[in-house]
Records
---
Amino acid sequence: MAKNVLVYIEIDSNKVARVSKEIISHALSNFSDSDINGVVIADEKTVNLALDDLKKCGVKNLYILIDNIFDTHSTCLFSGVLERFILENKPDILLIGATPDGRDLAPRLASKLNIGLTADCTDLQIDGDGKLLATRPTYGGKMMATIISKTVPDFATVRPGAFKYNSEIVHDEPELVYINPDISGLSSLMEIISSENKPKAEDWTCSEIIIAGGLGLKTKENFDLIYKLAELLKAKPAASRAAVEQGWAQQNIQVGQTGNSISPKLYIAFGISGAMQHTVGITNSDKIIAVNIDKDAPIMHLADFAIRDDAVNVINSLIQKLSN
Ligand SMILES: Cc1cc2nc3c(=O)[nH]c(=O)nc-3n(C[C@H](O)[C@H](O)[C@H](O)COP(=O)(O)OP(=O)(O)OC[C@H]3O[C@@H](n4cnc5c(N)ncnc54)[C@H](O)[C@@H]3O)c2cc1C
């Protein structure tokens, strides 16, 4: 059944945010017969700077809600603007990236529209009746729940990294629809007293090779070998939550439900059991190699290549071979 899908497109550093591209890619390949449209809220300068990227994002119609008041980003104001747009345009499905801004904007919007919201989804499909099947971890990540909303539009936020984005696919340019929205009666409810630009942390989650260590590495000294091997393989290091909790790695390189979702070409897990809270973050990896002494560890069944061996031995031999 054809659906009218609306993706809220976030702009980040004058580009379409990666998560918005991921959502659009997923919708284009999985929501057959549906119209995938986008909506962006920004001031004129931001729109002009991001326009080239916006034109390549793959949506059919791109609604650009433009006003110079939007130079100050405010999720309070944006939720009011979006509410009016949605009531007028009546999409069947509404999707927002679960970025810090998206996580602030979406519940405000759901409350205004009096609709349900399935937050932080890791999968989205459309069933035979045209309803959105929104899947997300539940019960502390022990289960995956697929939620069907009783309200319209179906509304979900999507975890960054949950879907793949292929930058090589060239899309037709969208129909650009510029709108000066009616902002009468809307305010930001917030006053920005001061702001500062923080240098952006490098986004390592889409690196081609990611190698991670877990509790099976036993000591911080052993975990440090992950950094050494990563350097030799031109890969990025990562960790399980248990390794982070041991203080062996920083939380920003944690993979999983309460860490990052990753989509590398190759993921190598050393001494990681493969608890669901971990594997929910690695399902988009093209190939997974697991090194574990326990052949029945869950990750050994999930992996494309399962190596039953001592993780430190394997890392040391790889380091030796690569150093030579
Ligand atoms: C709400 C919630 C959110 C969570 N979020 C996350 C998350 O985002 N990311 C995450 O990772 N976890 C998360 N967890 C924790 C998760 O449930 C697991 O506890 C954690 O992933 C286990 O980490 P681990 O695999 O490193 O350790 P363990 O489960 O202890 O596994 C260690 C593995 O190492 C193997 N091993 C032992 N010795 C060796 C050796 N010499 N060589 C090779 N292998 C060896 C063992 O066989 C075992 O399989 C979360 C939990 C909860 C409740």
---
Amino acid sequence: MNKNLLNTSSLPYCKGCGHDIIAKQSIKALESLGYLPLDVIFVTDIGCHGIIDKCLNTHTVHGLHGRSPALGAGVSFGIDNPDKKIIVFIGDGGATIGLQHIMEAARLNLNMTVVLHNNYLYGMTGGQTSGLTPKGFATTTSNEGNPFSGYDICQLSHTAGASYTSRVIGIGDITDDFVKAFKIKGFSLIEVVEICPSYGVKLNPKRKLAEIVESSGRKTGVWINKKPAYKLHNNKNTDDLISKLPVINDNFEHSLTKPTSIVLSGSAGEGLQLAATVLAKSGIKSGLDVTQKGSYPVTVGVGFSTAEINLSPKTIYFHGINIPDIVIITSKDGLNHNLKRINKMEKGILFIDSSLDSPTTKAEIIKYDFRSLGAKNAALASVLFFAKKTNIINYKAIFNIIEEEKIDKKVPIDKIKKELHI
Ligand SMILES: Cc1ncc(C[n+]2csc(CCOP(=O)(O)OP(=O)(O)O)c2C)c(N)n1
Ligand code: SF4
């Protein structure tokens, strides 16, 4: 097994960026502590520092701006294992946006380390002032120097309850500072004050990091709270969520020889996602690998409702669908939402409710009155129609799932059986 945590020595930052020192030396520190790639979970934030993900052999999670500490906290709760190392990478912009998340993790003293890349500005978006920019430091949004003082993140972290907080200047060899922060069981935050040559250096010529830290009334150093790391109290008696899911036995056959992508779409509030779930579970019942993804507007009761389902006789590694193999449309909302990709279909089948005009497509078009067939459950009826027409999934597997899900009262089963001769 590859023991290197980094998969390249050429990191994607501008020349001279302080992020490079942080990434390389924090990794060196982890390797010196004996961590293997799969013992480490890097949770990165939005910003230049966050583009490190692709260079890592470890687990990685990329969060929304300012939310990596909250995600790191979730990972810490979920893993509940002090032998795994959770490292949150965040910039001063993200730390400002997600300040409360950092405070909360420090207050609970969760097992994780926040590595704060403090270049005193928003690097990725052009050098704007953040809440950690010191008074007098020039940025692209405060050319004359920031008129306000920045937060003292170390004081905040220490006061909130972090086991370990430190501030270091990111020049030279700071590997040891990382080692000390990473060794902590509980919450540690290491603020590395560094430079962004592209904006910070240009706008603050001749200023030295040590002088900037000092003139803002801050000190480098370490602040300790002697307290135990957070420990979940009742997790020993709690089953994980997956073990509670019922097992679906594959007691039906399928005739699928290659991966097939299906889009099922109609109107919100018409049981479309339920129909998709029935189709997906029927696929599992037939021994296929299945993925299911649903999307609908935030106003859940109006507009489109779309489900994307992949069925495959082999393991599915990618669940996205661009141009589908099969599209099933039960209403105008569903048609409008998928029109562009239907137009692009060069082959495959479009099953579409007979009330709708046929769109431009090279797919074979099969029309049927799903609304009359399924009454209020046009989507479920369309899934049964698809099964009967293609034989990809045995319709008996679908009836079986309908029965198991106890939704048989919702569907006019006798009518469907009679009309489709099944
Ligand atoms: C909630 C949110 N607001 C704004 C943005 C736009 N944005 C992307 S990167 C960035 C700046 C990141 O600066 P920082 O967190 O300091 O990291 P750096 O680029 O300096 O490493 C901003 C504002 C965003 N992605 N999300
Ligand atoms: S813009 Fe600044 S922070 Fe971003 S990579 Fe370049 S030097 Fe680093």
